[in-house]
Amino acid sequence: MRTYLITGGSGFIGANFIKYMLRIYHDINIVVLDKLTYAGNLGTIREELKDSRVTFIKGDICNRELVENIFANHDIDYVVNFAAESHVDRSIEDPGIFLKTNILGTQILMDTAKKHWSIGRDEKGYPTYKEGKKFLQVSTDEVYGSLKRDIPEGRELSIEGEEMKDLLQGREVIPKTFGEKLFTEETPLDPRSPYAVSKASADMLVRSYGETYRFPINITRCSNNYGPYQFPEKLIPLIIKNILEGEKLPVYGDGRQVRDWLYVEDHCRGIDLALKKGRLGEIYNIGGFNEEQNINIVKLTIDIIRKLIIENGQLKDEYRGVIRCTPETISYDLINHVQDRLGHDARYAIDPAKTVGELGFYPETPFTEGIERTIRWYLENQDWMKEVVTGDYKEYYDKIY
Ligand code: NAD
């Protein structure tokens, strides 16, 4: 019976991870620690909270006393640290909270785990730890900075390495790239936004605990996630929400920024693989083989929504009175190019060769399938969307705790 401390488990990826883990393992316990910021929504894990294997604690990873109590009361085997301020635009407005949560919070979690997991010292003076413990830091490809977009229209990605070739055989997806270079785990860190700096700093701190104290760590660095339960300030859910409300779709600059997109459940599987098979001290890039320009993501989302909700030029019956858009408004005319984000990175692209080779990871969800599944989810879960944007989830929390 393994016990996971999942921080940030009411947020987008953390909540998906909890759902994934409870579904595939029976013999686990999960302790969720979440501050329930605007991005955390208890409604997202409403069903999971009824599961006897799950304990929820509202609180801040920066609260040393609280974290100490959690370790004192639960025999934690794995810490999976999702808790973070995660939105680049907010970090440009107010960097302070990003540095506090993302760096100092990570330090407090590690200090406490180190204390509770230590069992002595080896002959060289390094701490030794109880068997099977691990701290996994969930990080991002944004720590590597920005890559050149030197293939403007993109081309098929040629993948090096035998394992990669084997894994790709028979796949329908043809990975696409917009540049010659990809981020590997060896790429020097070059973060450009306050958010990315806070994540890179945390990564360096985690690495330093691995080196200095032989603390059992892994770091995973993932590309842009998309899927159910993502707060509608990030590109895909924001675009879906605005289309359904008949609102303009803000696109930064020319919209040609390139991101690598990964379906959230594939990320969850990658994290689980890193927990089980990752060599201690190692960093693993988790990517989707799926680079795309923001503007194309926006157009594709418009196309899919049109396909899903319009029939014979009319809104399908089930959407009448539920959403505000009309067949006429759902068009590329909604796209509104706004002033570009300050210091906007041109391109992120991950080379996941190490993760594929060592952990057997492969992004199983083709983008066309994942994006349609995501849009269907938002169409069917309009209430969730309203709840997170109006703050009703806070009342929900007060009611049940
Ligand atoms: P999110 O913003 O949806 O969720 C963050 C969660 O952390 C929320 O539930 C929030 O309440 C909680 N939280 C914030 N500050 C806290 C604190 N001080 N103490 C306790 N809980 C706190 O973020 P997400 O998109 O789910 O991202 C999760 C992690 O994955 C982050 O570390 C992020 O950097 C990383 N990541 C995200 C992406 C992506 O595309 N979303 C890609 C790569 C890596």
TrEMBL record:
One of its GO terms (biological process) is nucleotide-sugar metabolic process. Its cofactor is NAD(+). The keyword NAD applies. Keywords: Lyase, NAD. SUPFAM superfamilies: NAD(P)-binding Rossmann-fold domains (SSF51735). One of its GO terms (molecular function) is dTDP-glucose 4,6-dehydratase activity. Its EC number is 4.2.1.46. It catalyses: dTDP-alpha-D-glucose = dTDP-4-dehydro-6-deoxy-alpha-D-glucose + H2O. It is an enzyme of class 4 (lyase). Belongs to the NAD(P)-dependent epimerase/dehydratase family. dTDP-glucose dehydratase subfamily. This is dTDP-glucose 4,6-dehydratase. It comes from Propionigenium maris DSM 9537.
